[in-house]
Amino acid sequence: MKNLTLFILTTFLFFSCKTEKKETKKTPKPEEKEIATISNDMMENAVIYEANIRQYSKEGSFDAFTKDIPQLKQLGVKVIWLMPIFPISETKRKATGSEFASEIEDPEERKKYLGSYYAVSDFTKINPEFGTIEDFRELVKTAHDNDIYVILDWVPNHTGWDHTWLKTNPEFYTKNDKGEITDPLNEDGIPVGWADVADLNYDNKELRKAMVKDMKYWLTEEDVDGFRCDVAGSVPTDFWEEAVPQLRATKDIFMLAEAWEPELLKNGLFDMAYGWDTHHRMNHIAQGKETVADWDKRMQQIDSLYENDDILMNFVTNHDENSWNGTIEERMGKGGEAFTALIYTAPGMPLIYSGQEYDMKHRLKFFEKDEIPKTKGTTWPVLEKLGALKNTHIALHGGKNAASYTKISTSVADNVLAFKREKDGKSVYYIGNLSKDAISTKIDLVGNFSNYMEGGTVTFTKEQEIALQPWQYFILVN
What domain range includes position 97? Predict the structure, then answer.
C-alpha cells in the first residue's frame, strides 16, 4: 500500500512538472515594422534596382542578396525589381540563344545550362536554385524593414513547356493550323525566336482568370508590392484593363510595364513604362551616331506621346542590354558616368542593374551561372550621391507630379546638353559635354550655383566661354 501511495505521489509530481513547463509563457516577439503603403509621393523621387538573383553572388541565392539590401538603401533604392523567381522548365531549356540543353551530349556540360528565367513552369512556386519560400519571405521582410518595396518580374505572355497548364488547360495556348501549340510568333507568323516557351492565348477567358489568380497570390499571401510585366505590350490591353483593377483592389501596388505604349499608362493601369527610345538616344549619342539635337527631339516626343502624370524608366543598362548588346563601357565608352547622371536628372525614374554599382565590365551569361563583381570602385559613390539628390530634391521629382524640364541653349548645340528642372521655386541644372572632344561653349545661364558632385561654387556670367573636357558634366543646385 505504501509503495502504491508513493508511486501515485511521484506520478502526480512528474505530470505537474510537465504541465508547469507547458504553461511557461513565451517571450513575445517584437512588433514587425510595417512599410508605408505605396504612394504617388514615393514614385516622385524613387530609384529602382533590378536584382538578378542568380548572378548577384557566388551562391546565387535569396539569402546572399538579402544581406546586402541595407546597402542598397544607401544608393537611394526604394523599389527592388526581382527578375523571375519561379521554377524554370526543363523541356526545351535554353543553353545558348539557339541551342537547347538537351542537345548537349556530355551530362556534366549539360548541367551548366540553367535556362531562361522567363521560361516559367509554375507561377506560384519558387525556383529551388535560389532557395526556399522562407528565404524569399525573409528577403521581402528585410526590404520592407528598410522601407524598400519588392516587385516581381511577371511573365504573362508565355510559359515554359513544362507548365502544368499544357496538360490541364491546353486551350490556354496559341495553336497553329495543325492544332499544335506554338512558341510566340510575329504578326507575319514567323517565330520571334523564343523557342523555349509556349505562347498564351488571351482570347480564352479562363486563362485570364487563372493569370489574375496567380498574380493575386503573391500580393495577398507573400506581401509583394507589385509587378514588372514582361513584354506587357504583347498582351492585349483589355486584359490589363480587366486584371489591374482587381490587383489594385487587394492593396496599393506599383506596376511597371516592359513596354513603351502610352495606352498602358492610362486609366490607372501601369504606373511606369520603359524609356526605350531615351535609352537608344543615349547609346547613339555616345557612339557619335546622333547628337544632342536627337535628345531634344526625344524630349519633345515624350511631351506629345505621354500625359503629364505618366512615368518612364530611365536606364543605361538592364539585363537585356548587358547580356545581349554590351556593357555600359562597350556601348557608351567613357561617357557612362555622364549618361548615368543624365538618367537621374532627366524626368522619370532611374534604374540600377545588378553589378552596375560595382563597375561591372563584362556581359553576364544569361543561361548559365555567372557572377557580378562585389568590390566598390568609382561607380558606387557616384550612385550614392546621385541617389541622395534624387531622393531629397523636389526639382528632381519624376513621378505623377513631376518637376518641369526646360532646355537651356548653348553655342555648341550638337555636343552640349543643358537643361533646368524646377518645382516650387527649387531648381537643379544639368550641363554635359556629350562628346569625346574637348570644347568651349557659351551657356545661356547667369548666376552662382553649388557644384553638387564636386563641391564648391560655379559662376556663370553673360557671354562667358566655358571649357568642357570630353564627357565632363555638372549638376548644379540653385
Answer: 40-403
